[in-house]
Amino acid sequence: MIHVSALRKVYGTGVVALDGVDLDVREGEIFGVLGQSGAGKSTLLRCVNLLERPTSGTVTVGGQDLTVLGDAELRAARQRIGMIHQHFALLASRTVAANVAFPLEVAKTPRAERRTRVAELLDLVGLSDKAGAYPAQLSGGQKQRVGIARALAARPKVLLSDEATSALDPGTTQSILALLRRLNTELGLTILLITHEMQVIKSVCDSAATMRDGKVLESGLVHDLIARPGALLTREIFPLPEPAPPGSVTLTFAAGQAGEPVLSGLVRKFDVDVDILGGSLEELRGVSVGRLRVGLHGGETAAALAYLRGRGVLVEGP
């Protein structure tokens, strides 16, 4: 659905914000781009709908290369791309209903059709009772729901999220992420979101990329990245002290393995002693995944490690 190739953005000051970025977002998935401030992720998002025009490279959305379009064609293409913002970007002088209606007014949608569509959208995001309220009367989570409803007004196929939960408290963040997942499922939306919050990646993302200094360092399905030796995402989700103690191994238990008695079976089968040096268990989209650092001593250590690998456990170390 979204294909970014060799994307480069250099500002007039000489600052390189994007340095040869490649990215593929599949239709119907939620794709998260993770990075700290200055990584280039916000610039990447603005280049996807050409609010920022890249210095070079291509951006293809729904099979259409946006970088070659004229102004009128680009405006039409943007109707299929919704965007939600970190600080809501609502019009303070307009009611909730009028904020949601704004893009429909710009598109010259007939008044009766606008009213019907606004009512549908407010019901969809759970704000039917707030239609006549003003932004100043809303909580942060309610403001973001208005922003989401407005982004969906023109029935886009793609939704871009610019740090949409970073200004919210943890409980509200989870409710907004649950709403995005529901919209993704019910409407078939493709969602590209940027975040510096690992919890966002863990909660809703099917795929993810890690950015640093304007470059994508790794990209893929979240569960595939977890099973990749040395993956940065794995180290972010399951931080363990580095460097690993000499002779220790790090075990990553993928989806469906974290609750199995793998280590007890190891002890019985191969007569090894297992020292647990650290570890954690996390939920990735509701599925338990674990990472454990252990020392193995005595018995058939090599056979024990081979056994673990045969069970699909990622083994890093000797």
From TrEMBL:
<dbReference type="Pfam" id="PF00005">
    <property type="entry name" value="ABC_tran"/>
</dbReference>
<dbReference type="InterPro" id="IPR003439">
    <property type="entry name" value="ABC_transporter-like_ATP-bd"/>
</dbReference>
<keyword id="KW-0813">Transport</keyword>
<keyword id="KW-0029">Amino-acid transport</keyword>
<dbReference type="InterPro" id="IPR017871">
    <property type="entry name" value="ABC_transporter-like_CS"/>
</dbReference>
<protein>
    <submittedName>
        <fullName>Methionine ABC transporter ATP-binding protein</fullName>
    </submittedName>
</protein>
<feature type="domain" description="ABC transporter">
    <location>
        <begin position="2"/>
        <end position="238"/>
    </location>
</feature>
<keyword id="KW-0067">ATP-binding</keyword>
<dbReference type="Pfam" id="PF09383">
    <property type="entry name" value="NIL"/>
</dbReference>
<dbReference type="InterPro" id="IPR045865">
    <property type="entry name" value="ACT-like_dom_sf"/>
</dbReference>
<dbReference type="InterPro" id="IPR027417">
    <property type="entry name" value="P-loop_NTPase"/>
</dbReference>
<dbReference type="InterPro" id="IPR050086">
    <property type="entry name" value="MetN_ABC_transporter-like"/>
</dbReference>
<dbReference type="InterPro" id="IPR041701">
    <property type="entry name" value="MetN_ABC"/>
</dbReference>
<dbReference type="InterPro" id="IPR003593">
    <property type="entry name" value="AAA+_ATPase"/>
</dbReference>
<dbReference type="GO" id="GO:0005524">
    <property type="term" value="F:ATP binding"/>
</dbReference>
<keyword id="KW-1003">Cell membrane</keyword>
<dbReference type="InterPro" id="IPR018449">
    <property type="entry name" value="NIL_domain"/>
</dbReference>
<keyword id="KW-0472">Membrane</keyword>
<keyword id="KW-1278">Translocase</keyword>
<keyword id="KW-0547">Nucleotide-binding</keyword>
